[in-house]
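(Deposited chain)
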Amino acid sequence: MPSTRLEAFSDGVLAIIITIMVLELHPPEGASWQDLVHTSGLSLLTYVVSFAYVGIYWVNHHHLFQLVEKIDGKVLWANLFLLFWLSLFPFTTAWMDDTRLARIPVLVYGVDLLLAAAAYALLEHVLMTRHGSDSVFHQTLNRDVKTIISPVLYGVGILAALCASSLPPRAGVIIALGCYVLVALMWIVPNPRVERSLR
């Protein structure tokens, strides 16, 4: 079956996720830079990180399905599994923001990121089983290093947030957020092998 409806549905869900996140932003009460920083500064930062993640998933999802020749019911469910974890981004982002980057919300945010990455890897795996080992899809996406490194960095971030109480104040949270941002920076540029295959 063609993947057009799956792609259109996924695009719509990701657009709604971004809309929900931006609606969580509240303008500062005053008109100075200090009001912006103290009232909305953290909200803007957490929004930017989560927006970047949703954008990264959208770009990579789009590239992924440019190589897809066929899908089936398992692909549909794997895609829904990915969208489920992405749909929790507004919740986990808002919780981090409302608690001023407390340890447990930062940890839960990392778990959400990890599970979304696992769901994306599962989607890739399911798609790979639908295409032969000699297909362009299989040759392009097989042995992707970023897919291996990302869960490791998420794990380090989650452990840092988990052990934050035994580290210097805020150190665990800073390490965790640093790991999350590092993974995002790794994925900003889509897989160059996909670009070459599309050309």
